[in-house]
Amino acid sequence: MQEIKSLSQFNKLKANPLLVIDFYATWCGPCKVISPVFDKLAKPHESSTSIIFAQCDVDKAKDVAQACNITAMPTFQFFKQGKKVDEVKGADPQQLTTKIGYYTTAAAKETADGGQGSSTKAGESSTATTGPASLRPLIDVNNGKLLNASLLSSVRNIASPPPAGYAVASVGGSRLLIHLPFTQAVTPSTLKITIAKDSISNAPSRIQVGTNVPVRVTKSPEGVESNDLDIEAAIGKAENTQSFNIYSDEYVNGVAELKLKASKFTGVKSLTIRIDANMSGESATVSKIGAMDIIGTKV
Questions:
Q1: Rounded to an integer, what distance in angstroms lies between the CA atom of residue 16 and that of residue 83?
Q2: What are the structural domains of the chain?
Q3: Which of 2, 65, 127, 264 is most open to solvent, judged by the fewest CB atoms within 10 Å of its CB?
Q4: Which residues are catalytic?
C-alpha cells in the first residue's frame, strides 16, 4: 500500500491503468472502521504494477486533497490513466467492495488485452472518421445539474455508470430534470435508457428533451452556489425540443432507444432531459434510470 505525500507523486501514480485512493484523516472514526476493509480489498493486487492502491492523509498532503476536491472523509477515488472515473464517499463497505471489484476486473482484462480496445490498428490513421459513439466522455460532470433527484443520483453516474444500483432517480414523485452540458459541440442521434434492475414500473414513460437551455449560476457572499434551473420552465427555454411517449414493449431487454431528430439536434452544447411520468402511471411513484447513454458524433 503506497502513501501519497505529494502532488507530483499523485500525478505520477494516476497515470496507471487503475489507481484507487483512500483519502483519510487520523482523527476520523469512520476512516478507522473501513480501513481494514480497504486493506483486504487491496491485498490481492499488492504485486500488480498496473492496479495501484494508495492512501492519502488529507492533513499531511493538503495540496493533493485540494486538487481532488476532498470535502469529507473517508473518500475513495478511482482514476484510470489520469482521469477520475468514480468515487465513494463515506464508510460504505458494500459500495466500496462492489466498485473495487468492478474496476479491478476491468483493469486486469484491459491489461491482459494489451490495451487493444483503444489502440489504432496497424496501417490505419488515428484521425480516421468514426461513426456514432457514446458521448458520455464529453459530458461536463462538474457543470451538470439534477433537479428533484435522490441523494444517490449524480451526473457522474450518467457519465460513468456505477457497477451496481442506479444512475439517477427522482424523489417525492415521478418528475426529474437532468441537465447535461458537453465539453464540446456534439450531434446526438439516440438517447438510450436502461431500466434499473427489476424496476419496470419506475422506468420513464414520458420524456421531453431540449437543447442548449441557458443556466445562470450565482454564488452568495458565503460561497454557496445556486442556479436558475426550474423543472417547470427549463424545457420552455430550449432552442429545440422533442417529446417521447415510451411504452413498456419499447424497453427491449431493458433498454429503450429514443431517436433524436437531426434537424433539431445538430451542434448541441447541452441537453436538458425532463421525465414527466413513469410506467406505474402514478405521479407519486419515483422514476428511476439504471443507466443512460447518448449516442452521437462530435462536431
A1: 10
A2: 2-109 (3.40.30.10), 135-298 (2.60.120.470)
A3: 127
A4: 28, 31
